[in-house]
Amino acid sequence: MTDVVKVAEELASAVDGVDWDGSEVHRCRVRLHEAAKSASVAELTRASEVLVARLARSRVDDADGVAYAAIGAGSLVENGAPPRLLAEVLLAKMPAVLQAARRYADICLADLASDGDSDPKDGIVDIDGRSIDLDLFRAHLKKDRGGASALSTLEIWTLPTVAALTRDRALLMRAVSDGELRRAARALATSKAQWLDVLLGVVLDATWLIVCPMEKRAFHMRVDGLVSNFDLHALVSDVLIEQGIRGERNPPDVIAFIRGDAPTRSTDSVSGSFQFYTYEAGQYDWSQQAHPAWHWVWGEGRPETVPFFREMRTLIVGPQTMSRSWTMPRTFAALKCDVSLVRELSPNEVHATLDALRSSGEAPPR
Questions:
Q1: Do 305 and 232 touch, CB atoms closer than 8 A?
Q2: How far apart are alpha carbons 115 and 248 in whole angstroms?
Q3: CA–CA distance, 328 with 226 (Å, rounded to integer)
Q4: What per-residue confidence (pLDDT) applies to 360?
Q5: What's the domain of life for this entry (predicted)?
């Protein structure tokens, strides 16, 4: 038996029971991390199978340390173990974990609200912009120990779930279409599970309409793997400039890094090229010098919130109203993203599209 498999078995055993030994679990996790560095893919796979089997027989009400088996398996995936087994079991387990965490948080927050006191500054759990301190957290353990365990280990469950899903496209597509999982993650969007909520909002293999009213041109583009409007701005802009729309182009290695095709880049800064608007800006008279700021697509938002026009998410493209730049750490290191040209609309199609946009709703404010 190889070291990494042996340590995985020790970790799977150490997380058992309500009174699991935190120091022993920590020791096993450190040894697993070190052993994984020199293990072969076959050894990593076997060790992952050990931890996944332990996860498969877990229950929220056990209130044990099994979340640490999950994060241990996540570290194996990050070192080269196949992600599918872990992704499969976490897709099955995470809705119950998230629902239990939400349930216990609500119990504590209701007690906090009835207290009338301000939120503690030394809280051990932050959720919904509120802070739960240790005494309050412990006060309800007898009511719902499983929920308390789920809430306290929320980040430890979330990290391996993200690690596995961002490395398995088929399972990510399943996760995105899992309504129960998405609702449970959205209910914890302002908690340690926030990155799972962000990931489940990813736009996958979707065709968008990109309209440049000042140039009287429009395009269908394929948008895939995007969770950030900053990346949306950078990648859509790059395709537009490639098609001859005048704008400031970012270095090729920066675009490659954003896509996940390059490990490094020459600069951390991305320059804005255009201003993007929702489809409602198509009602605006683009011959004016002012531009409809109330319909901006902000970089801080998510592509999933860009509204549809005629069953297609739509961006209106205008010139920059101010110089903008931002830094570009990738949201998820293992999740590749891309924007590519599907086709350019014909002049007749552009004319019809602009007419439809102009009549799509009430006249914009002046």
A1: no
A2: 55
A3: 13
A4: 81
A5: Bacteria
Q: What is the 3-state secondary structure (H, E, C) of the chain?
A: CCHHHHHHHHHHHHCCCCCCCHHHHHHHHHHHHHHHHCCCHHHHHHHHHHHHHHHHCCCHHHCCCCHHHHHHHHHHHHCCCCCHHHHHHHHHHHHHHHHHHHHHHHHHHHHHHHHCCCCCCCCCEEECCEEECHHHHHHCCCCCHHHHHHHHCHHHHHHHHHHHHCCCHHHHHHHHCCHHHHHHHHCCCCCCCHHHHHHHCCECCEEEEEEECCCCEEEEEEEECECCHHHHHHHHHHHHHHCCCCCCCCCHHHHHHHHCCCCCCCCCEEECCEEEECHHHHHCCCCCCCCCHHHECCCCCCHHHCCEECCEEEEEEEECCCCCEEECCCCCCCCCCEEEEEEECCHHHHHHHHHHHHCCCCCCCC
Amino acid at 321: T
Give per-residue pLDDT as tens, 193-243: 999 999 999 999 999 999 999 999 999 999 999 999 999 999 999 999 999
Residue 66: band (very low, low, confident or very high) from pLDDT cuts 50, 70, 90: very high
Q: What ranges do the domains of the chain cover?
A: 3-200, 206-358
pTM of the model: 0.92
